[in-house]
Amino acid sequence: MTQVNNDQIRQNVRIRYEEVALQNEQTTSCCSPNKLGSESPAAISAKMGYSSEELNAVPDGANLGLGCGNPQAIAGLQPGETVLDLGSGGGFDCFLAARQVGTTGKVIGVDMTPAMISKARQNAENASVSNVEFRLGEIEHLPVADQTVDVIISNCVINLSPNKVQVFHDAFRVLRSSGRLAISDIVTTAELPEPIKNDLKDLYTGCISGASSISELTQMLEQNGFVDIQIEPKEESKSFIRDWVPGGNIDDYIVSAVIQAVKP
C-alpha cells in the first residue's frame, strides 16, 4: 500500500471519528458502517463485555459505544502503573483504567482526531479526573517517551492503521521491560472478498477491511520483539458482528479477539 493510500486511509478514519465525536447521540458502533437503530452506547458496550458497574463509573459522554471487546478484562492493571490507550476516543477505557491504577498511577490516551481529544479532555475536566492525560497523535508515532509505560491497552483501533507493523514497533519502544499489551481487536478468520478488501472508506473505517489474520498479527508482534504472544478469538462476538453489515454474512470473515504479548 502506497504512502498516498496510507494517508488517505488515515484521513478517512479521522473524518469518520470526528463525526462520531461531534454527535450528541451515538447510535453507531465504531466497528460498523451502518446504523444500529436506537441502541444506546451503554447497550452496545454491554454486548462487548462491560459490566453495569463499569458503565456507570465513567463520566457522561465518555462512552461512545465504540469498540469490539473489553481490554480492561484482560489488562490486570495494578495500582501505580502507567497505562497507554491507543485510540482513546472519548476516554471510556482511560477512565476505567484510571480507577484501577489509582492516584499513584497514570493513564495516557492517544488519538489522532482533534475532536476526540477535545471531547475526552472535557470529560476529564467535568469529572475532575486528575490521573488521565489525553495527547493528540498517531498510534504509529506515539507522543510518548521511551520505556515509560507498563501496559498498553486498545479497543478495536489497531485494525484501522494502514501500518500495523509500525504500531507494534512504537508500542515496543514506549513499553518498559516486562511491559505488556492487552488489546481487543478484530481479526480475520477467512480471506476477505475483494470488494470488502478494496473498500477503503466505509468498510475500512468500520473496522472490517483493515483487519489482519492471527498469523499475520503474530508475525508482526514477533518481528518487533514481543514474546508470550496470545491471540484468542472470541466466537461469541459474532452475535454483534453480524449486525455490522446486515445481510452481508460478515461474521463468516471476521471475529473479535483478545491480543496479549510481553516486552522482554
UniProtKB/TrEMBL annotation:
It catalyses: arsenic triglutathione + 2 [thioredoxin]-dithiol + 2 S-adenosyl-L-methionine + H2O = dimethylarsinous acid + 2 [thioredoxin]-disulfide + 3 glutathione + 2 S-adenosyl-L-homocysteine + 2 H(+); arsenic triglutathione + [thioredoxin]-dithiol + S-adenosyl-L-methionine + 2 H2O = methylarsonous acid + [thioredoxin]-disulfide + 3 glutathione + S-adenosyl-L-homocysteine + H(+); arsenic triglutathione + 3 [thioredoxin]-dithiol + 3 S-adenosyl-L-methionine = trimethylarsine + 3 [thioredoxin]-disulfide + 3 glutathione + 3 S-adenosyl-L-homocysteine + 3 H(+). Gene3D superfamilies: Vaccinia Virus protein VP39. The keyword Cytoplasm does not apply. Residues 78-225 form the Methyltransferase domain. GO terms for molecular function: arsenite methyltransferase activity. Keywords: Methyltransferase, Plasmid, S-adenosyl-L-methionine, Transferase. This is Arsenite methyltransferase. Belongs to the methyltransferase superfamily. Arsenite methyltransferase family. CDD domains: AdoMet_MTases. Its EC number is 2.1.1.137. GO terms for biological process: methylation. It comes from the Bacteria. It holds the Pfam family Methyltransf_31.
